[in-house]
Structure formats: structure tokens, C-alpha cells
Amino acid sequence: QVQLVESGGGLVQAGGSLRLSCAASGKIFGINAMGWYRQTPGKQRELVATITSGGRTKYAESVKGRFTVSRDNAKNTVTLQMNGLKPEDTAVYYCNYYSTDDYVFYWGQGTQVTVSS
Predict the structure, then answer these.
(1) Can you tell me the distance from the alpha carbon of 60 to that of 17, in angstroms, rounded to the nearest whole number?
(2) CA–CA gap between residue 23 and residue 79 (Å, rounded)
(3) How crowded is residue 87: how many other Cβ atoms within 10 Å of its Cβ?
(4) What is the CA radius of gyration of the chain?
(5) pLDDT at 11
(6) First-residue to last-residue Cα distance in the chain
(7) Residue 78 in contact with residue 69, Cβ under 8 Å?
């Protein structure tokens, strides 16, 4: 059983920045990954950025060069620094945790990011 607590999100103008954070609690074992997904009405939830317990990262092509994902294994936290935000980045962002220990996907409650023109 893993719990995810998110913070961040908000309303910004195009070109601005936001920082999202997520803290995981519970039994953290095995090969795992933490990261962020986003979803807008009428679309499936899509990967934004993830980082494994070994430090390997994966980004959506649309955010490369603008977003940076990082983690602190001692604190079991993951952070998404978002720079150069665009209106198309507007979505609900969800923190995610996955581990080969129990093969279960865990999700945060979601936080709204809105970018105005």
C-alpha cells in the first residue's frame, strides 16, 4: 500500500513556470518508477515524465527541453520543474508510482495546471 501526496499547480501565463512535487509513503521496494501524467477532457491520460529508482528518465516529446523530472530516493519524492509553459500544457496532472514489488499502479489525486495566452 502506497500513498501519494501532491503539491503545486495553479494558473500562469504562457512562458511562465511551475513546480510540482509528490511524496510517496508506505512500503517502497523493488524496481520502481515515479513520475507525472496529464489528462484533458476527451483524451486519455498521457505520460509527461518519469524517473526510475536507478535515475533513468523518460519524457514526452512535447515537453523535452522545457520540463525536468527529478527524485530524492531518501525522501521518496519526485519533482517536475516546468518552464516555458504553453497553453497546450493545460491539463490535470497526476503523480504516479509503479513497482515490480507488487505490480500495482498508484495515483495521486491530481492537480490542475492552467496556462493562459
Answers:
(1) 18
(2) 9
(3) 11
(4) 14
(5) 98
(6) 41
(7) yes
Question: Residues 74-103: pLDDT tens digits?
Answer: 888 999 999 999 999 999 999 999 988 888
Sequential DSSP letters for 39-65: E-TTS--EEEEEEETT--EEE-TTTTT
Distance CA 55, CA 89 (A): 25
Q: Is the pLDDT of residue 20 over 90?
A: yes
Q: What is the pLDDT of residues 47-63, one digit of tens each?
A: 999 999 999 999 999 99
Grid coordinates of 97: 508510482
CA distance 19 to 44: 23
User: Where do we find the cell 527524485?
Assistant: 71
